[in-house]
Design goal:
By secondary structure, the protein is mostly helical. Helices cover 76% and strands 0% of the residues. It starts with a helix and ends with a helix.
């Protein structure tokens, strides 16, 4: 009995320590954003702002084109998510349902392509986009990011499609549904939690991109994303860290909003409903 209580206490302490370590960077961002400038350079550092400077957010919005950066980032993230899902759904369905010659090899090749570093794609894609006159276009970033995201999304969706009984599709075909209609009306609704998780993955990866945006959009300042804009706020001699942290906090809010919207699909029991 005593050992059981000690084990339970150790688990609670471990969980609290892990949560504290994970949340400390976010807490420090908030403290840095709200602290006055003289407090940021004090030693020892203060773990609580003496007089919170809430006007740092209005200063950020007044002095930086934060709304334009946000618009570009949202556009790229949503377009990348839609493009990646559109390709991954059909690729995953083919790998899950059809017994193709060399299908296992093709699947492993797709997964292996995910392991390639993104830096390998920068120069070839830059040469292609420059020849097509797409350098400086948001679509250049969308296409490049989707190229990296599709392999893993395909394997994520294949795992969900494998769990869906094929009898559901056979019944729909017998009732007169077309093959594409079967995917749209039967497979995708049942796989909604998997689609939500895959969409969230694609959105987060696209939102956090810096390499491709920095490479393809540098020529046009009006096309900068949030990550590019925040990185450009670092001064040569003096840096307003409180303004940068305020921008970082505001840039994190859309990710939190997307997660809250999709969370109910992640825990939903749509698959159990289909079994009825």
């Amino acid at each position: 009995m005593k050992d059981s209580k000690l084990r339970q206490a150790a688990i609670y302490i471990t969980v609290i320590l892990v949560i504290a370590i994970l949340l400390f960077p976010i807490y420090w961002m908030v403290v840095t954003a709200l602290s006055p400038v003289h407090q940021l350079r004090s030693f020892p550092p203060s773990f609580w702002p003496e007089s919170p400077q809430w006007d740092v957010f209005s200063t950020l919005l007044a002095n930086q084109p934060f709304g334009l950066w946000l618009k570009n980032t949202v556009t790229i993230a949503i377009a990348t998510m839609i493009l990646a899902l559109s390709v991954s759904i059909f690729a995953a369905y083919a790998l899950s349902r059809y017994r193709l010659r060399g299908g296992t090899t093709i699947g492993l090749f797709i997964l292996t392509s995910k392991m390639l570093p993104a830096t390998l794609l920068v120069i070839p894609f830059f040469a292609i986009f420059r020849s097509m006159g797409m350098v400086g276009s948001l679509w250049s970033v969308v296409i490049t990011q989707a190229t990296l995201i599709v392999p893993f999304c395909t394997w994520m969706l294949k795992g969900y499609f494998d769990t869906i009984p094929e009898e559901l599709e056979h019944a729909a075909l017998v009732d007169g549904c077309s093959p594409l209609g079967t995917i749209w009306r039967i497979v995708l609704p049942v796989a909604a939690p998997g689609l939500a998780a895959t969409a969230l993955y694609a959105f987060v990866i696209s939102w956090s991109d810096f390499l491709f945006s920095r490479t393809f959009l540098q020529t046009s300042e009006s096309k900068w994303t949030l990550n590019m804009g925040i990185a450009a706020m670092k001064g040569e001699f003096v840096t307003d860290w409180n303004v940068i942290m305020a921008a970082s906090l505001m840039a994190s809010l859309p990710i939190l909003l997307v997660f809250l919207v999709l969370e109910r699909f992640l825990v939903g029991g749509l698959a159990s409903g289909a079994e009825k």
